[in-house]
Amino acid sequence: MRRYINKRILAFALSVILLLLLFVANLFYGSIEIPCREVLSIILGNGSERDVWRVVVLDTRLPQALTAMLAGASISVAGLLLQTLFRNPLAGPEVLGVNSGAGLGVAIVMLLSGGVSAFGLVGGYAMVLGGAFLGALFVMVIILLLATLLRNNMFLLIAGVAVSYITSSAITLLNYFSTAEGVHSYMIWGMGSFGGVTMEQMSFFAPVSLLLLLASLAMTKSLNALLLGDAYAVNLGVKVKAVRAVALGVTGLLTAVVTAFCGPVAFIGLAVPHIARISLGSSNHRHLIPSTIILGAGVALLCNLVCQMPGESGLLPLGAITPLIGAPVIIYVVIKNRSLR
């Protein structure tokens, strides 16, 4: 038992160290080459030889790294909550269509209005965030209703894929009838990026994300009870319907906030909870949620680093990188579950 606890503490400590190293790497490495001593001087507040370097580090790389950490942690916890609620290892914002629902809400705002700029900068982001939340919540309600009708998890996954196709069709029709500016805005947003949150917007993005993550940590006891089945949870005094409603609301908000500001990056939320379970060897949410938060932030920082690889030639789309990292994990989980059966 003591060896198991020590192993878990060691895995957690290594995850924290790796997260810090990835965060520092995101500050020192980017599409613009800046000497390491200059980056360190800027971080310590000593200024730099060139003002443009200070702007790049403090106004671009720093908020981008913070956004990656918060977005990765948030979407990973959203995936974990969905996997617990539906007791299905393949449940996640991407597979169950929650991410597509948020995308549809954003598409309605962007494509029908001619782009975010039609509402102004502040109003535009507020409309995009509201559209993403309503779209994600709408799909979550549909999935919850289907979950009460379809007791089979495989049928539920098929229904989630069907919902994703329906929302994709609606987005395609909106693109067809939209203006060129609206299509361009939605296309750029759809590529995904952690660089869309400025330090001014961070004052909203960070508190909301942290409050929702704290809300998920407060549900650890109830989530552990749900793993044993609804009947057992009721015997323990857990109000199952209330817990499900709160968890779905937290999931919808987490998905909406991340999708609105960063685009469709929900594939991280499907893979990271499994990485956390493998590293911990446990499904106890008391340890699983903190580990998922740290690993989700680290994976997002790693994806952001990979996007910078072309250097001065440009940036890779984030939406093309996250599946490359997450897909092998999902394939491993599918093969492992099949072998266990």
Describe the structure.
The chain has 341 residues and is an all-alpha fold. 78% of the residues lie in helices and 0% in strands. It has 14 helices and no strands. The protein has helices at residues 2-28, 36-43, 51-85, 98-113, 121-149, 153-177, 180-190, 199-217, 220-227, 230-235, 240-262, 267-280, 285-307, 318-340. Helix 4 runs antiparallel to helix 5 and helix 12 crosses helix 14. It is globular. The model is unreliable at 117-122 (pLDDT under 50).
State the secondary-structure class.
mainly alpha
Total E-strand runs: 0
Question: Overall mean pLDDT score?
Answer: 82
Order of helices and strands: HHHHHHHHHHHHHH
pLDDT < 50 runs, ≥5 residues:
117-122
Radius of gyration: 20 Å
Strand content: under 5%
Keywords:
341 residues, mainly alpha, 14 helices, globular
Helix-strand layout with pairing:
Blueprint: H1 2-28, H2 36-43, H3 51-85, H4 98-113, H5 121-149, H6 153-177, H7 180-190, H8 199-217, H9 220-227, H10 230-235, H11 240-262, H12 267-280, H13 285-307, H14 318-340
Offer a quick outline of the entry.
By secondary structure, this protein is mainly α.
